[in-house]
Amino acid sequence: MTDDREQLQNTPIGVFDSGVGGLTVVREIIRQIPNEKIVYFGDTARVPYGSKSKDTVTKYSKQIVRFLKTQNVKAVVVACNTASAYALDEIEKEIDIPIIGVVKPGAKVAAETTRNGKIGVIATEGTINSQIYSTYIKKINENINVIGKACPLFVPLVEEGLLVDPVTDEIAMRYLSELIDRDIDTLILGCTHYPLIRSTIGKIMGENVALVNPAYETARGLKELLEREDLLNKKEAGLGENKYRFFVSDGAEKFKRFANSVLKYGILSAKTINIEEYSVKK
To answer: Which CATH entry fits the domain spanning 103-214: 3.40.50.1860, 3.40.50.1950, 3.40.190.170, 3.20.20.70?
Structure first.
């Protein structure tokens, strides 16, 4: 029985996102629970998710989870705010392993952080339209005012590597000026791409606005979940063991270059797969 439990603990965590943004979650998992193995899937052929319908995002998410299950993962992290908002509840009903999204951990910390009861959320159109952050925050404290702002151009800017660029500065100023006018004191980076331009956002918002990074909070939540379920890996990976594996639906070389700039430990390969092969059976 002990051997079986150790074997299960030594299996990887599955992490997925619409593209490269979920690498910010992977980075936090590596920092906070370094023994864990990771299988990452970035849906680079179909990014962005934020402008797509709930049905489409749910269909894509189910395909990806089906693929991750073939990789013998012990838990799944939905490292995409749009997919967490649209698909998490449906996926939860269909799988028999623990799953965690990025929305609840960020919402909880934001509600605990605000001093004046005014929280801003920047995210994709899908996440903002779902009102999911507002829903979770209001459950914690119904008196908090949540102001959402869709920032659809941030994802393509990040995907193109324009992390420090006058174009990104200009777009950010246009998006964020509305939130500055609303006197928020806490801002949720409600898309996993956004921590990659955190310095730009922080500079514009000013030092009196606390930035909440759901990627960081999700890794904390994942560690607690694994401890609770007795799934935490207690063994360090052996020499030459394939600890981190990366899969994409398109553009593996471009993904690999970007991933190396985010994770900075040397990704040897990213494999392209046909994710449509994992369509949910009727």
So the answer is: 3.40.50.1860
